[in-house]
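Researcher: First entry.
Model:
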Amino acid sequence: MVSEYNNETVVGPRSLSNLVVTRADILTFNFAEELDLQPDFVREAGGRLAEGPGPGR
C-alpha cells in the first residue's frame, strides 16, 4: 500500500483513507496458525451439526 502511494491505479480497498481518519485497524486471519485447533473445532461443530437446527430456525 505505501509502496504504491504514487501509482495512478488504485489497488486495494477504496475506503482505505477512511481507515486512517477513523483510526481503524485492519485485522487478518492466518489459517495456518490455527491448524492445531482443527480437531477441537471438528468435534464441537460436528456435534452441533448432528443436533440439527436450534430453536427458532
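Researcher: Second entry.
Model:
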Amino acid sequence: MYIGKEANDIDEQELDVVKPQKFIDEEEVRQYILGLTPEEARMIGIKHRSALAYLKKKSKGRRVEF
C-alpha cells in the first residue's frame, strides 16, 4: 500500500486479504498413492520405481507428510 502521491489509486490496490485454507483429504491421497502403477507414477513425475515403493511403504504406515 502506497502513501503519498499514489494515494489516489488506493481503490485499485489489493488489501492484505488472507485466502481461505484448503485442507487435503489425507486418506484419499493415501489411497491414490497405494493404487499407483509404475506407469502412472512416471506420468506424474515419479521417475524411479524405488521412489514409488518408498511412497507406498510410507503410505501403508500412515507416515506421509503433507
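Model: Note on the second entry: The longest helix spans residues 49-60.
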